[in-house]
Write a structure and sequence with these properties.
alpha+beta; 17 helices; eight-stranded mixed beta sheet; OB fold (Dihydrolipoamide Acetyltransferase, E2P); 2 domains; five-stranded mixed barrel; BirA Bifunctional Protein, domain 2
Amino acid sequence: MEDYNELIQQRFKKLAEFSAMGIKPYAGRFDVSASAQGLIEQYGNASKEDLEKERIEVTVAGRMVAMRSFGKAGFSHLQDGSGRVQLYVQKNSLGDDRYALFKKLDIGDFIGAKGFLFRTRTNELTIEVEEFTLLSKSLRPLPEKWHGLTDVELRYRQRYVDLIVNPEVKNVFVLRTKIVQAIRGFLNARGYLEVETPMMQTIPGGATAKPFKTHHNALDMDLYLRIAPELYLKRLLVGGFERVYEINRNFRNEGISTRHNPEFTMLEFYTAYADYRDLMDMTEQMISTVAGEVLGKTEVTYEGHSINLAAPWKRTTYINSLREAGVPEEVLTNAGNARDYALKLGAGLKGGEPLGKLLNEIFEAVVETKLIQPTFITDYPTDISPLSKKRDDNPDFVERFELFVAGRELANAFSELNDPVDQKERFLKQVAERAAGDEEAHQMDEDFIRALEYGMPPAAGEGIGIDRLVMLLTGSASIRDVILFPQMKKEKQ
C-alpha cells in the first residue's frame, strides 16, 4: 500500500509540473478522425508497402494502457472505446522537448495523437506519432494484475477500473445492450408499444415481494419503489392498448446472491385476446431469435452444460414435474402430508400454509435445480398465483407457466385474471395472509379492481428477467457480472 501511495504522489508531482509548464492537464474538445477498431477494419489488410506509399494520416484519442521505451524511441498502446492501437514515438519526429514530455506520461493518461500509419517489423498496424496532446492526467495507477485480486468484490465496486483492464467484461455489457435491442426489435416488429409506468407506487403490486418504502414530503404520503409494473400495464389493456411492453427496473427488498440483486431489470409484455399457450410459443421464438441475432447460434454453454435454445422446448405441468421427481401422490393432494415432506427437505415453514405453498417449497427443493434444458412448467396452484386466471377444468390450478433454464427461473407468465369479483376475493385472501405475518403478500388495490370493473379484454402477460437472460447468453456465473453497478455493502473506510 505504501508503494501504491508513493506512485500516486509521483503523479501529483507530474500534475504540478505540467501546470508549471503551461500544459493543461485536463484539456477540452479534441477532434478524432478514426477509432482503433475502424483502423483495423479499414487498413488491417493493407500491405507495408501500400501504407508507406499512401502516407495515411489519422488522429486518434484514448487511454494509454502500455508503454515501453528504447531510449530515443518507444511504443505505447492506446485504448479507445472500440479497442487498441499501437503508437510509435521517436525523438527525431517529435523533437527533444516533446519527446521528453511524452516520456513523462503515465499508463492511464488520456492523450490525443496525430500521425501516419505504417507496419512494424512484426507487421503490427501502428501510428507513427507526429503530434500529441495530453487530454486527461491519470492520478491513480492501473492495477497490473487485476485478475489476480483476491477481493473479487473490488471489481464490482470499482467497475470503472474493471472495464479498463478487462476487455471481456466490457464485451459482456456490449452484448447486454445488443440483447435488449434485439428484444425491442422483436416486440416492435410484432406491433407492441413500448411504454413507461410509475416507478414509485402508492401500493406495491404485481408480484409477491417485500418492497422498498420511501416518503414524499410534498404529498405527505408513503410511496413504494415498484416490485413489478404488472398492474399498471394491465390498466393500459383496460384503456385500449392491446399490445404493450416495458423494459425497466424493479426493486425488491430481499436478499443478495449470485441470482438476486435488489435492483434488477425486467421485460414485461401483455397481449390482448391471447392466453398463456400463445406466450409459450412466442417466448420460444423470441429467445431463440435473440440468441441467433446476438450470438449467431442457438446453443450456449452455461456452467458446464450445453443448452439448446432452439424450439421446441419441453412442456410439463407443475404436478407432473413433482411426480417425475418422485414425490408421492399422497403428498400432492394432502396439506398435512405435504407439510411433513417439506419439513424433511429442510423447508422453513411458519405454519398454516395452504397446500399450494407447501408444494412450492417441495418444487424448489427437488425440481427447479434439475431443469437444465429450457422447460416450461405449466398450471401452477392457485394458492401461489393471485393474478392468474383459473383453469376451467380445475379451479385449484391456474393458466400459468414459468420458464426454467440452467436450473433457474427465467420467465413467469399467465393468462390474466380479468374477473374483478374473483380478483377482489383473491386480494382479500392475500390481505388476510399479510395480516397473519406474510410481508410479501399482496395489498388490496381498489383502483385496480375499479379498472377491471370497466372491463379488461382476455389477455396474457409475461415477465422475463433481463439480467438472468444476459447471464445465460454471456456465460456469466453471477448476476453481478451483468449489472454495471450492483448493490454492495458500504466500503470500509
